[in-house]
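job 3f2a | input accepted
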Amino acid sequence: MSRSAPSPIYTLRGAGGPLNCLHFSCHGGDTPLLFSGSGKGAIHMWNLNTRRAEKIVEGHCGSSVVWVGTLQGSETLVSQGRDMQVCLWDLSEGRSEVMDSVCTGSVGFCQCSVLETSPGTRLLAFAGQQTEEIKIIELPSKTAVCTLVPDAKLGMVMCITLWQPDSGPGPLLLAGYEDGSLLLWDVTQRAKLSQAKAHPEPVMCLTFDTKCLRGISGSSDNKICSWMTDRQNNLQLQDCVTLLNPGVSQLCIRGDGKLLASAGWDHRVRIFGWKKLRPLAVLQYHTDLVLSVAFSDHQDPRQRLLAAGSKDQRISLWSIYNEAADTG
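job 3f2a | predicted structure (328 res):
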């Protein structure tokens, strides 16, 4: 490692359950926020100035919250629970009310994905009731757009992400499956564009850098594998990094495209340079599985944070590599 590993600058406690998901909202207003979803169904809105929960809401009948996010340019929170519901919350003027919900039919852990297609209109993709299907609807109308089902038996849909290419027609969707396969779908044509076998075990998580058309996935094995899409939308496997211990819950690329963070089943957070996947640091604090990682969206790079959520019911906050250094 190039430097000694740092310690958390502070921790957040009191979530009351495993921290399945994290989401920062620090670019608007005076109050930087961190949203967390717990295995006990609670969504905490942490004020990063006071380092306390500003609000706690329960919207999934005690079922595990597997994903939280905010809609760009609005004061709307989106949460997904294992109660088969995706909830949209109105956070304007101090409110925290569920203003709409979508039934997914799926009780799995596959996180949904939201993509803004035009001002006020978004696509929502989620794992459907059938094992291998992905459903996509339009919001706020809830109009069905398509259902994507692979020809071959690939097992359960494990993770998905929607994105809009700079050139070409409509949105594309990347999906990871139980058999270790990655599929790239054309949403407009409802067609599979390409497929690659990235892991021998289920794809537990993936993330995609739309700027360089490169992604990375993790599994229950001890490897994280990078891959890219070419101009013909073919998935091409690139490098694999072997980890000391198996199991990756989540992967996150920092907004500037310089760092990659992994949440490990071995209680550790690992930091890599995104360009060359060079190991930079191993962050050790948690006493159980690390389930989630997220980089903050502060406009000032010096304020950027990394958050890690664990099964030990704690969130650790880290300030790392915020100077203009070559991280590889």
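job 3f2a | Residues 181 and 236 are 12 Å apart (CA to CA).
job 3f2a | closed
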